[in-house]
Amino acid sequence: MNKNIYAPDLAIINKVRDEAEGIKTFTLEFEDGKLEESFDYRPGQFIELTIVGVGEAPISITSSPVNKGYLELSVAAVGKVTRALHLKKAGEFVGLRGPYGNGFAFEEIKGKSVLFVGGGIGLAPLRSLINQIFAYRDNFGKIDILYGARTPGLLCFMDDIEKWGKLKNSEVLLSVDVPDDKWQDNVGVVGSLLPKIELDIENTVAFVCGPPIMIHFVILDLLKMGFGEEQIITTMERRMECGLGKCGHCNIGKSYVCLDGPVFSYQQLKELGENI
Ligand SMILES: Cc1cc2nc3c(=O)[nH]c(=O)nc-3n(C[C@H](O)[C@H](O)[C@H](O)COP(=O)(O)OP(=O)(O)OC[C@H]3O[C@@H](n4cnc5c(N)ncnc54)[C@H](O)[C@@H]3O)c2cc1C
Ligand code: FES
């Protein structure tokens, strides 16, 4: 019998970690080991997370496919499903279906330098790709990671950030909009970090992920610096229902964000008539 495409699989929560203010990271495994065997995903893809009796929400996979056997989701509690998830503890179950969406290019960017610009929880899908790239470090040029959040308490993945900054030929810069007493690093929007790094623009691909206003201004900065429209890659958030290209909730022009995205180049978005 064919499986109902809308039926979620059950996954067990193995670990819950406080990631930042209002953001938790959940480590999930399928009980029957299926995650290990058949759940292949690419960085930039997402799953539809189900909390039984509450509903579903699309969530990016933040773990990297190089780490087999589990899945990590970092989730901000903003509404029905995400608040219900935050109440869950290790040992409890959630439903999930996927992976969905196109994901980031990986093979195609080998040989290039890579610039990541993330804002807040927007670092979650980028983290998956960053860790995949560092697992194949010799295939890439310089790696620059610029990351910002509104306040220091909203910065995610600080363990990864510390590790990334120490790896060869890579640079990590942080910034916050509003510092606290202890903050001794950069202050300002994340785009203000761009003049602080050295880039070989012609050979660099830029991945930008975060709140829409941040994406807008960072893309303008990158274009001014000389990046081509096809060298700027971003992810689009839309309210989604099916995640499968069936319900028509998420379209941009003739494209479905759940199917043809959520990853698009700036050039593609312009062609679709999306004003970002
Ligand atoms: C591809 C993709 C990947 C994502 N990845 C992540 C991730 O990794 N981590 C993460 O935390 N989030 C992620 N999100 C965002 C997440 O899916 C949304 O925040 C989702 O709405 C949360 O579901 P919820 O039921 O908790 O919130 P909802 O109850 O849907 O509410 C979310 C927000 O939307 C508002 N809202 C509710 N209904 C409507 C409506 N009809 N129209 C407009 N606004 C409304 C609410 O007031 C609230 O502010 C992702 C979204 C997409 C599309
Ligand atoms: S969410 Fe249904 S078509 Fe994209």
Keywords:
binds flavin-adenine dinucleotide, 20% helix, 6 helices, 31% strand, binds FE2/S2 (inorganic) cluster, 276 residues, seven-stranded mixed β-sheet, 15 strands, six-stranded antiparallel β-sheet, alpha/beta
Tell me about this structure.
This protein is of the alpha/beta class. Helices cover 20% and strands 31% of the residues. It is built from six helices and 15 strands. The protein has a seven-stranded mixed β-sheet, with helices on both faces. The protein has a six-stranded antiparallel β-sheet with strand order 4-3-6-1-2-5. The radius of gyration is 18 Å and the shape is globular. The model has no long low-confidence stretch (mean pLDDT 94). The structure holds flavin-adenine dinucleotide and FE2/S2 (inorganic) cluster. The site of FE2/S2 (inorganic) cluster has 12 residues, from loops.
**Class from helix and strand fractions:** alpha/beta
SSE arrangement, N to C = EEHEEEHEEHEHEEEHEEEEH
Rg estimate, integer Å = 18 Å
| Shape, principal axes of CA atoms | globular
Please count the helical segments: 6
Bound molecules: flavin-adenine dinucleotide, FE2/S2 (inorganic) cluster
Q: What share of residues is helical?
A: 10-25%
- Trace the largest sheet across and list its strands: 10-9-8-7-11-12-15
Pick out the low-confidence regions: none
Describe the sheet with the most strands.
Answer: 7 strands, mixed
Mean pLDDT: 94
Q: Find the count of extended strands (DSSP E, 2+ residues).
A: 15
Work out the strand percent.
25-35%
Cα-to-Cα separation, first versus last residue: 44 Å
